[in-house]
Amino acid sequence: MTRPFSNDPLLTPLLPVALICAALGFATALTPSLIPRAGVVQGALAGSAFLTVYALGALLSAIWRWLGLPFWRPRGLTRLANALALAIILYGLWRVTDWQNAVHASAGMEPVETARPLIIAAVGAALIVPVIVLGRLLRLLIYAQANRLARIFPPRLAMVAALAITAALFWTVGNGLLVGSVLRALDGAAQRVDALIPDDLAPPAQAERSGSAASLIAWDALGAAGRRHVLSPAFAEDIAALTPDAPGLPAAQEPIRVYVGLNSAETPEERAELALAELLRTDAFGREILVIATPTGTGWVHRAGIASLEFLWRGDVASVAVQYSYLPSWLTLLADPDYGVETARAVFRAIHDHWRQLPRDDRPRLYLHGLSLGSFNGELSADPWDLLTDPHDGAFWVGPTFANPLWQEFTARRNPESPAWRPRVGRGSLVRFATQDGMPNHGAAPWGPVRLLYLQYPSDAVTFFTTDSLWKRPAWMRPRAPDVSPAFRWVPVVTFLQLFADLVTSFGTPVGVGHTYAARHLIDGWHALTEPPGWDEPALQALRDWFEEREL
Prior knowledge:
The protein folds into 2 domains: 16-149, no CATH class; 196-457 and 517-549, no CATH class. 49% of the residues lie in helices and 7% in strands. It has helices spanning 16-29, 39-66, 77-107, 117-149, 155-195, 224-231, 236-242, 268-281, 303-312, 329-335, 339-355, 373-379, 384-387, 405-412, 461-464, 494-505, 519-530, 537-549, and strands spanning 256-260, 289-294, 317-322, 365-371, 394-398, 431-434, 451-455. Strands 1-3-2-4-5-7-6 form a 7-stranded parallel sheet, with helices on both faces. Helix 9 (303-312) links the parallel strand 2 (289-294) and strand 3. Helix 3 (77-107) crosses helix 4. The longest helix is centred in the first third of the chain and has 41 residues, at 155-195. The chain is elongated and about 90 Å long.
């Protein structure tokens, strides 16, 4: 019996038109995007772009054949396509250093002598060749299944059934076995890191900090991020040495830092109640400022995110953070995306319920704070119905994720003349946006009783990644910010891959670029949001320098 689907040899030439388009994808992926990239990342990105574009071309070719349309391949086209594709790739590798230096210039970084094109080529080839071979093996498997099914069904129905069976098989193996095993391995490794306590790390001596001898929370239950948080500056002596003296201003005092680790209690509600009990133990509701800081996936709280506010208010600050995971933020989203929101809501509900029962003239100003995934969960922590009668005083969100619901809403409602990377919303009475260059001018319009502030770098793909960049230009590219290279061009599909690579690698950028936020901008944000007394520009600059010297 004749087989309706013939298996091509494993080493047949690549489709000529698809190959040329894939080479263009490879070279285009090396052009500037939001942040600088190392050679290995560049190679992986370029290889991924090659494979993605080639797969799309092969799919269109298969559909063309499926429809029975004429298929013409002139003699010599394969050799011409191979030569042209090689020339395009070599051109991209030749220009890659100039393109990377265009990104460095926009980010204020020193130029590089080379972007390591040989490494890019090697990594790209190491990705492309095995995937092409795997794809052809997969095609052989599909054709073999379709030929068996064609004994019973019409050829086209047999092909559809073979595709469905193969897809189900690969999904079961890939998602059920491989992904599950990888997630379990990463979970176990992260759990061991979270529990590790170095020999030279001792509990804090200050009773105002969790994990101390006076604390309700055990030192070994704080987790790695929690232990670092309660031991990092600022302390009362640091504050006293740096804050300006002025008549009528209080003396420096020891800030209150409450941190509840994932292992401190069983459930989010129990951890929230423990956080409230620790706040009551330390008399946190007697301070001028109380901050609910939602950590990232690992439980990390930006050291300058709280310390800068403690300096600005001479230590008259209490803060509380509750860990909901020990996994990196991206892995937390994959493994248990709702757990962070559940914990953030339990913490806010417990603290806000107590806070609103206090006399209005005798309670602290209540703010929310979070960076990255912490801002996402923090945005969702407050029930709007609870805030109608007694809202908190505001929030400071840093590096919001592209999925933040309130951030999306505010950005969409921006004034038409304001750019998407630094929007102005109405008169700025509720929400304002800042970049490393400060906030836009809102004129004489006052900031209202509830103040929301977003700090975002235009080069941060965690904030500005968009799925629709697959097919349309992102709004933040017109006009573009000063720290986004003028050489960054939108290309369908490839720009999406570039932004995804920037998203994954944006945590390793220099301070002040990508998703690595500088203390000086956090200082300026808290200063604008809370308006602490007694600080002039020289004093603020001295504070910025102090943080920069210590890389906090």
